Amino acid sequence: MKTKPKHKTIECLSEALPRSSQFKRQNETPSRSSQLKGQGQMLEYLLLMVFVVAVILMLMMFLTWWQISQLGVERAKNQQEWSLSMLKQFTDSPYMTKENSMFDDAKLTALASMMPDGCQRLQEFYGDNWYAEIRLMDDEPVTECSQSNYPECNYWKICEQYPDAEGRVTRVAPVNIYRNIGFVLDVTNAVLPRTYIGTLTLTVYY
Amino acid sequence: MMVMDMKIRNSERSSSKPANRTVKAQKTDDINIKRQDSLNQSKQAVKPASQAVKAQTSMILIILVIIVFGGLAVFLLTFAKTFSQPEYINLYSHNLLLSVMRTDTGYTDSRCRLVSDTMSCAFFESDWKCGGEGPTCLDLLNETIQKYVGSFELVQKSYRYLFIAKPEYLSGGDVLNPLTDEPLRIKVGDLGLETERVSKIVASEQVQKTTSQGPIVIKAQLILSQRKE
Fold this sequence. Notes:
The complex is a heterodimer of chains A (206) and B (229).
Chain A: H1 6-16, H2 19-26, H3 28-91, E1 97-99, E2 102-104, H4 105-114, H5 118-126, E3 130-136, E4 155-158, E5 169-184, E6 191-204
Parallel strand pairs in A: 2-5
Antiparallel strand pairs in A: 1-2, 3-4, 3-6, 5-6
Chain B: H1 2-14, H2 23-78, H3 86-102, H4 115-124, H5 137-150, H6 153-158, E1 159-169, E2 186-189, E3 201-211, E4 214-226
Antiparallel strand pairs in B: 1-2, 1-4, 3-4
C-alpha cells in the first residue's frame, strides 16, 4: 500500500492555489494591524484637535474677559480723572473761595444753608452727580453750619449726599478756611479774621 | 509569518510543474514577495522610532501652545495692574504744604501769626517769645507743623513726612549760621527721609520776608514717602 506524505499534500495545495491569492493571504494580518494603527492615529489627531480647540476657546474667553475688564478699567480711570478735575475746580471756585485753596466760610454758609437752590446753581457749572463736604480741623465736635449757629460751627455740606451711590470716587484735599470772625481780642473786643486748616472731601458718582 | 512565506516559496521552487504559469511571471512574483518581505522588515524597524518622533512633536507642539498662551496672559495682565495716582498725591502734598503755611497759629503778633511768619522768626529772631510769654518761634513752628501735618488721615495711615525750611538770599546762596558757618536749616518730621533712597513726593513753596539781614526767600519743602508695610 502506498501512502502519500503529508507535506506532499501541502505542496499540492499550494500549487493548486493561484499566486495572487497567496499574496493576498500574506497581507491579511498586516492590513488589520495597519487598520488599528490608523484608528490610533485618528484618535491621536482627534485628541490633538480637541486640545487645540479647547486652547482656542480658552483664548477667546480670556480675550473677551480682558476686553470687558478693560472697559471697567477705562470707566474707573475716567471717574478718577473727573473727580480730580472737580477737585481742582472746587479749590479754585470763585463761588466758594477767597483765593486758591482758601474757602470763605461766609460764602460756604450762604451756599450750604441760606440758598435753597445753591446746589442746583453749582450743578449748572460743575455738572451733576457729586457732593462735597468741608470740615474745619479745630478738634471740636462736628457742627454743621447754618444761619442760626454761624460762626459756632465747623462743617459745611454742599449738595445732598448719596453714600450708597454706585461708582463713588472720593477725593480729600487739605484746604484753608478763612473766617471773618476769627479772633476776638480781649482788650479792644476787635474782631480779626483767622485762617484755619481743613479738608475738602469731594465725592463723584454715576 | 516569515516561516510560512519561506515554506511556500520553497515548495514553489521544489515543484517541477509550474501549472499554467510562465517562468517570467513566477520570477516577477518572487521579486514582489521579496520586496514585500524587506518592506515589512523595514516597517517593523522604523515603526517605534517614527512613533516616538511623532509623540515628541505633539508634546513640543502642546508645550509651545501652552507657553504662547501663558505668555499672552502674562503680557495682558501686566496692563491690568491698578493704576497709581501720582497726580492726586502731588496735588495733595502741594495743597498740604500751602495750607499749613497759611494757617494761623493762634497768636496774633505779627512774628507768630501764620506758620510762614514763624519760619522767618525762627531763623532770625530765635529769642522771640510768641504772645509775650509763649513758646519761641522755633518751638511753635515745630509744634504746629507736627500738629497740622500729622492730623491728616493720609499722613497718619500711610505716609511719612519731612518738612525742611531754608533761607536764601534774593541774589542766591544760603544764609549761614554766624556761629557755625553752616547753612541755616529747620527740619521737622522723619529726618531719615532726606537721605533715604526711596520714592518721594516733594512739594515746594517760597515765602519772601524782609529781615534784619535784608530781603530773603525762605524755601519750604514737604517730602512725603509711602510707608513700607
